[in-house]
Each structure stands twice: as C-alpha cells, then as structure tokens.
Amino acid sequence: MPRAPFIVIEGLDRSGKTTQTSLLRSRLEQSGHHVALLKFPDRTTPIGTLIDSYLRSQSDLDDHAIHLLFSANRWELASRIESNLKSNTIVLCDRYAFSGIAFSAAKGPPPLGYEWCRAPDVGLPCPDVTLFLDITPEKARERGGYGEERYEKEEMQRRVREVFRRLGEETGGGGGSGGTTTRWEVIDAGRDQETVSMEIWRRVENLVANGLEEDVDRLWKDRS
Description:
Pfam families: Thymidylate_kin (PF02223). This protein is an alpha/beta fold. It has one domain (6-211): P-loop containing nucleotide triphosphate hydrolases (Rossmann fold), CATH 3.40.50. It contains 9 helices and 5 strands, in the order βαβαααβααβααβα. Strands 2-3-1-4-5 form a 5-stranded parallel sheet, with helices on both faces. Helix 1 (17-30) packs across helix 9 (193-210) and helix 3 (63-76) runs antiparallel to helix 5 (97-105). The chain is globular and about 45 Å long. It starts with 5 loop residues before the first strand and ends in a 14-residue tail after the last helix.
C-alpha cells in the first residue's frame, strides 16, 4: 500500500499559513482523505508552554536554549508523523524545521549560525513537499495583528526571508542539501486568499491522489 504524503506549509509571519493550512485540510477531508494537522511550535506540550511564554515576551531565554527547545518540540511529535504516514493519514504541518532554522539564524552571527541552527533537526522526518508562502514584510505589515509577537519586526522578517531563500535553494529538488529530497514550492502569498488556495491545491493534487511508495526520508541525512 502506498503511504500518505507529508505536506509542510512555511512562510513569513502574516503570510496566511494558518488560514491556508486550514483551507487545505478542509479540501483534503472533503476529498475523502484522512488528515492529521500539526502546528509548530505545538504550544500544548510541556516544552511548548515554555516556547509560548517566550514568544509572547513573557519570559526571556538564551538564543541557543530557545532554538533547542523549538527543535525538541518537533522531535516530540516525530514518531507521530511517521506513524500517521504509514497508516495512510496525510500529515499537514503549519511550520516545521525550516522555520526553526530561519528565525534563529536570522538573529545574528555565529555561533548561532546557519549550520549550528540546522544541526538539532538532522534526522527528522522529511516533508514530501514544502509550500513556502512568500510575502514581503511591507505587505505582511498591512495585515491584522502584525507586530504582536517577538519576531514580527520588518527588519527581522527581511533577514528571515533571506534564510528561507537559502533553504529553498539547498533543499528544493534534493541533491544539494545532504540528500534531503523535499520538493520546495514558492507561492506568492501577497494575492487574495482564494487564488493562493487554488495554487496550493494545484501543487499537491497529484501527490495526494497517488500517494508514495518510498519510505519517509530524513532531513539532511548525510550530516547525521
């Protein structure tokens, strides 16, 4: 039996990730698919509550410590991801390891650099497709609620966008990022909600219809 696909939606803050993830989940379920929806950070776990307090600026943590907590939060759910995929349940994820790397690496120079930020996530289940919702920080600022959390500052978002661009170049298509084979799809999220939703569906329709024969891959597996 083919297994279900692992789909990740990434993007800058206020790019519409949560809305589009919800819309895609509804469409998948209406098409008869079983779907497990995950959102990182998962603020309901013991580690997630610490992250939530930090993101709301209610507590302060060393940059290295908070990055490792974000990664640990993903590892908490790694076995659940694989179990769902093997039981033919699509895993749909709002943010994943790529966000963890992008936001931490955008903070400043080494030792909290790109390679250091990537290391804790080596070996996590690899998405079959990553849909990156691209939007300029200026456009995101026009949307409601912008600036409510720690990282929602325009200069920070510009740096994050650059790291995402690097991740896309290194992981998209496989072969250039340590064997990672996720498909990396860039989608213009500055357009209206319905147009973005239709494009997302076009990018995943064949994948969800046919399933996959191969086992779940690992992120940056040759670096483990």
